[in-house]
Amino acid sequence: MQFPTHRFYEDIMALFCAGVMVSLGVTLYNSNQLITGGTAGLAIIGMHMTSLSFGVLFFIVNVPFYYIAWTKLSKRFTINTFISVSIISVMTDYMPVFVHIDNVHPLFAATVGGMLIGVGMLIMFRHKSSLGGLGILALYLQNKYSIRAGNFGLLVDTIILSSSLLMFPIEVVILSVMGAAMLNVLIAINHKPGRYQAYVEPKKPKSTVGLNPE
Q1: pLDDT tens readout for residues 90-102
Q2: How does it sit in the membrane (predicted)?
Q3: DSSP string of 113-168?
Q4: pTM for the complete prediction?
Q5: Please, are residues 111 and 186 in contact by the beta-carbon 8 Å criterion?
């Protein structure tokens, strides 16, 4: 199947828009001390355990996964993911300069925050990018073994959010689970094998011209 390709400036514009959506989603989460899954969730948990900001932690957590993206997926995907992670790391830390949230209902923060992050991830996937980290692993498993990225993400998020019970109140975890479910349902429905998505380009077979068939 031939998938559409994008020019570099189209990727940059799309990844910037996706970064804005994800950063707004994380800002809604932070307004009620909620947690999300994936590497973003690990970065949020790390905020409560260290003095580092979300942006710094999010960037650091993603670094080891670039090797998988570079060797198992594609160079373009790795570069685009690095761009996405960098945009989100910077924008999330500086979002309070432009947007100040005084009061938002926790249920709204959980569901709409999850929706914003999920739609942002879909835009990234369709421009050969991701949120990095566990998202890279999810895309690799989907491309290699046809395991839906949304289903794998839901499993990982369940583990992360269940572990957060040791650190956060039960009501916070319940709302966070609702947000994670919204996020992963969006991805599971809209990002399936065979559709317009991030994928591994098949290697071209070596030419057999001039070779003895024996």
Answers
A1: 999 998 888 888 8
A2: Multi-pass membrane protein
A3: HHHHHHHHHHHHHTTT--SSTHHHHHHHHHHHH---HHHHHHHHHHHHHHHGGGTS
A4: 0.77
A5: no
